[in-house]
Amino acid sequence: MTPAFIWPAYFFAVGAAIGSFLNVVIYRLPRGESVVRPGSHCYACNQPIRWYHNMPIISYFLLRGKCASCGAPFSPRYMFVELLTGILFAACLIRFGLNAPAFVYMLLCAALVAVFFIDLDHFLIPDVITLPGIAVGFGCALFVLPLSMTDAALGFVAGFGIFFLLAVAVPGGMGGGDIKLMGMLGLFLGLKAVLITIFLGSFIGAAIGLIGKLFFGKGSKIPFGPYLVAGALAALFFEREIIDTYLRLVLPK
Length: 253
What we know:
Blueprint: H1 6-28, H2 58-62, H3 76-96, H4 100-122, H5 127-143, H6 149-169, H7 176-189, H8 191-216, H9 224-250
Helix pairs in contact: 1-3, 1-4, 3-4, 4-9, 5-7, 6-7, 6-8, 7-8, 7-9, 8-9
């Protein structure tokens, strides 16, 4: 009998390896560089990173966060992205089981990790992630995911439509990347989850902006995409719990 922790541990390791590739995507994609060539290398000394120095999470601690060739420090974010992606992959398995929808949600989580950090750094959500994501989301909603095509279509209309109307009503207040991201999320998550995403993303953004005003005298300079990603992940894993909590609050017995 296979121990219960084996599959989550396996997918954590797979996710960490995917996270290592996402670090390359996050750095190179906004700069218009290939994510395939050249291979991983130190950006200080330009020396290739050998495979045994490029093991997800482990190598960061073994090398004490420094390049093995020149000793230049690596950002702890590299390790954090690998750790986060590993946790999300394991969480997909635990939440949805060993099935096709879980693999789709792992793919979605990987895309969202890339979106989070690219938008955080560059105030940009690349079309090369969201536009194929919309196509993949449509196909997965039609053939794989446990939601009806009607629910997915309504999710797309709500996510894309609400943000498009906001962009029209307040020019410059909403970027095109956010609009396409929400359309993609609507197809993967459905109507209720995409509405939760919008609510939580707006709430988190407002809360962080208020904290910045109160304690630092200035609002948040973080783009909206990371807040939407946080809301989407919460909706993906805790949609039912969030709805039940909301109903208990607004419809007390």
